[in-house]
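Risk register update: the risk of archive-format incompatibility is retired. Evidence:
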Amino acid sequence: IATPNHWHALGAVWACQAGKDVYVEKPVSHNIWEGRQIVMAARKHGRIVQTGTQSRSAPGTCEFIADLRAGKYGKVKLARGLCYKPRKSIGKVSGPQAVPDHIDYNLWAGPREPAPVMRKQFHYDWHWQWPFGNGDLGNQGIHQMDLCRWALGEQALAPRVVSLGGRFGYDDDGQTPNTQVMILDYEAAPLVFEVRGLPDAMGSSRMSHYRGGRVSVVIECEAGYFVGTNGGKFFDHDGKKVQSYASGVALQHHQNFIDAVRSRKSGDLHAGILDGHLSSALCHQGNISQRLGTAISREQLEDQCNGEELREQVFERLAEHALVHEKDFSKRQMTLGPSLAFDPKTERFTGELAGSANGLLKDSYREPFVVPKEV
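Archived output:
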């Protein structure tokens, strides 16, 4: 399944019900509820369901994770995902755009209402509109999010999340942030994720980096830190390279799916659907906080950190970067999402604003394109 995001879960559930095995691209879902429905469908119907997070099959990355599990670098102190990937404006249209003649728009829209198309480019730019996509957090970022969760060893969603961001540098038909930072506050160690779609300076094409990583992860451990995605390097705290892990794309990820189809053992999968659901849902957690946020000035931002050192650090990094591209925040302010409590067992938000947050756990569907409650 390599459709737009809003079709992933419905296609996967229907396939499982029809007795098919499934390779579903990331993110496996458009929302948290959908992801869990795919997991349930796969288990109920005994299907093999692989997620398209190919780094799970990258030999160098697997070797690093094995060393991490063996205690070679001590405890993980923080996992940081980076999606510093250039994303230009998608433009702004003055009215509805024509759907290409060769597209059955009713079928393409599927679970969503086939509303007027408000973007110049029909394909791909749906990523930046909420009804169909999940921003770069759920597009490129899901790969690095998955690696962060893998490194942390977490097999549940985060008990607290907060997001800060906005769409800076241009005014277009995109709705999702092109600049965002979120904190997933796991008890053992936090997960920080940063999205930057704009370069490090006005008029430049050079993207920012953090410890040399751009579209990467930085796993901070007691003994130093790892930087990479498909392979990478581990450095001590002085920045001296300790070990290299072979770089290379995970060509065997598809073969792993085929091997599991033949063995009929879902445990043989490198990126089974439960892992796909959890990592995709972490992106959704951050986006829910972001979508419930309110505009905030640079001056107000400091007061909202509540003395939390990590929050102050990551929020300040985002504000400094955004100011490069948006000198006047009165025109397009940063949006600070609420700090949301979450119950990993029920996969529902709790506490203040739980009603609003839980309202974003699931989309509205239209017949006959409805993700079933009973899978």
